[in-house]
Amino acid sequence: MSTRPIATTRAVTGIPTGRLAVWWIIASEIVIFGGVLGSYIMHRLGHPEWAHQSIHTNTWAGAFNTLVLLTSSLCAVLAHQAAEEGDGKKAARFLYLTVLGGLTFLTVKGFEWRSEIHHGYTLTSNTFWSFYYMAAGLHGLHVIAGMVLMLFVAADARQGRELQRVENVGLYWHFVDIVWIFLFPLLYIAK
Amino acid sequence: MRETTESPQHSHEDQPQTHHERPGFFRRYFWSTDHKIIGSQYLFTGMAMALVGGFTVYAFRMQLAFPGQSVPGWGRVTASDYNALVTTHGSVMIFWVAMPVLIAALGNYLIPLMIGCDDMVFPRINRLSYQLFLISALVLLGSFLVQGGAFGGAWTSYPPLSAKPQYNLTPAGASLWLGAVALEFVAFLLGGINFVTTVMNSRAPGMKMFDIPIVVWMIIIASILFMASVGPLVAGAVMLLFDQLAGTGFFDPAKGGDPVLWQHLFWFFGHPEVYVVMLPAFGIVAEVLTVFSRKKLFAYKTVLYTAVGTGVLSFFVWAHHQFIAGIDPRMANIFSLTTLLISIPVAEMMFVYIATLYGGSIRLATPMLWAIAFIAEFLLGGVTGIFLGSAGSDIYFHDTYFVLAHFHYTFFPIAFISVFAALTHWFPKMYGRLMSETFGKVHFWGTIIPFNFIFIPLFFLGARGDHRRIYDYSNFPDSMRAGMQDLRVLATLSLVVLLAFQVVFLINYFYSIFFGPKAPENPWRANTLEWVAPSPPPHGNFPEGLPNVYRGPYEYSHPDRVEDFWPQNEAG
């Protein structure tokens, strides 16, 4: 790609094209997670006995992970602020911190799942656990995707290129964060 | 803040990109980011898949008309062949023909031209979208070659039939089908985001909301509907894939799941999907009708608002597919009501189109014939839908040929009649040449007449209680009452005639691409911006600079003008 089309540089709505597209991506993702959570909630209401299953989830690990994700979102905001000031290097540093947050989240998650599988709660033991692994797994894939994207954006930002992408990737990261805010009470706290 | 984050290229606005080296054949046609090439890729892939869909329907209709006999070109259709053929026909025609041709191909080709910019806002995502789509098509076709053959659980893929290999007997085919559909959804999500962002942000200077041609509006509304409805089915597809491969029980009551959940997730997408493909078809018809009746579109804003209204309502009708699935009868009442309500905006659009024709100087060129046929045939589809929308009569008609005929009376006009209108209308722009009118009219009558002879018999069969998922009717005395087999044979023979006449179209299309008479820039004397560009438009679309817009798209036969059209880009 040598040049960008003129189309990409126009902004009739006043919103830069990249950010507008991220909002539409988020909108389409909301309905995907909406489908997962809606199905889960309907099942959960029909099966009060699932409370005996959810008691085996590790609420403290989940709470710690919530804190980690929220902190990483703060880093994403700080990266955006640095990008607005034109400081690409600082923005990249904050993005790396955000990636670190994602990595911590996944590590904790890995230990959690290991211990649960070890205790015999696997994907197929019961539909509660099927939902648990499926919903958290789908969310985990989004975390990984966000981290990969951030590494690319950070590499550009370090050299002062494409700084508008720092905000866009941050928006996506906040969305992934918010999905977790819904998953945590539904899967861990509701006992 | 905006100044620092936006790309600082606004100063280059309106300078056409003229210096392009001509890339090699492969990069030009297979790796291009040009929206017109990507549109053509979608179009030709859709055409190829339409041949697959046409061939499968030929094979299983022959089995129904002449059970147990060898079908020329396929051989004996076994029961599992029959299942795979029916499933493939349904899936291919909806997901790999209607969607890519109506939305992806025409959207890609028309949107940047009609809103006056040089390309989509994300050309490389656009290319990725097509590549994912191509892979999904290959995965689907490849599933014919795996152990057990292609999936045979119908395009709705209801569990437990689709979830358990001991029921569907196609363990690999079922998962490949699901994977192909999911991949295809990703492709269209990428495309849809591109379309919506492009139209929101990259319109020509001066093009206000109500100056956007109706077909562009319709594709955008359809893309948003698709984005808003497909999510739950993606979630459902993940769950079904887990049920198939990992042994979970999301849709298995024995393990605490619920098979009706799939029906909800599927139809929450499946019904808006009808409108996802219907709205662009209505958009095409609006463009063609105004051009060939030399009249302003009657009630532009009404069309727009009814389209939005249809889109919103379409999210509240899905359970009319499940009246016999054991849903609460009170729910059935509500969904009957919403279903009957949705016929109001659609009927309103019909009236608007007829009012557009009224008093116009109508010219019955091939595209116009298709557009008028669309209105007439779709009307029949809509009217028969009333019987299926009300729970009382639907319980009798459910899963009969009546449903099938109703569905085809809506989908055939959408996926074929409107597409033929579009292809014949925009052909001069796409290739810079004209198609043959004589061949066009032969193809038109050769398609419309057999089409009615296929599906009117099926209405009668359905009303007499013919169930649609039966491999060999001669096993059922109730389905072999006097005249019923004759109707099946009539439908099948009409289908063969219809398929044969498509050859006329293909010859006309591909011959005219290379040898048709040269077309001027604006052969139909139309107003919209794509006719300002040269035919065919070069890379960058408007070599003389991107156009500005001064008026709405339908200013035909304006009393103050000598010419009966008034292009959107003409100042003054």
List keywords for this structure.
heterodimer, A: 191 residues, Four Helix Bundle (Hemerythrin (Met), subunit A), 7 helices, 80% helix, 0% strand, B: mainly alpha, Cytochrome C Oxidase, Chain A, 16 helices, 63% helix, globular, disordered N terminus
Describe the structure.
The complex is a heterodimer of chains A (191) and B (572). By secondary structure, chain A is mostly helical. Chain A has 7 helices and no strands. Chain A starts with 5 loop residues before the first helix and ends with a helix. Mean pLDDT of chain B is 92; it is low at 1-19. Chain B has helices at residues 2-5, 25-29, 35-65, 79-114, 123-142, 165-168, 171-201, 214-245, 259-293, 300-313, 329-357, 366-389, 391-397, 401-431, 437-463, 484-515. The longest helix of chain B has 36 residues, at 79-114. Chain B has 16 helices and no strands. By secondary structure, chain B is an all-alpha fold. The chains are: A mainly alpha (191), B mainly alpha (572). The interface between A and B is large, with 50 and 60 residues.
Strand content of chain A: under 5%
CATH top level assignment of the domain at 64-191 in chain A: Mainly Alpha
Structural class of the secondary structure composition of chain B? mainly alpha
Percent strand of chain B: under 5%
Question: In a few lines, what is going on in this structure?
Answer:
The complex is a heterodimer of chains A (191) and B (572). Chain A is an all-alpha fold and 191 residues long.
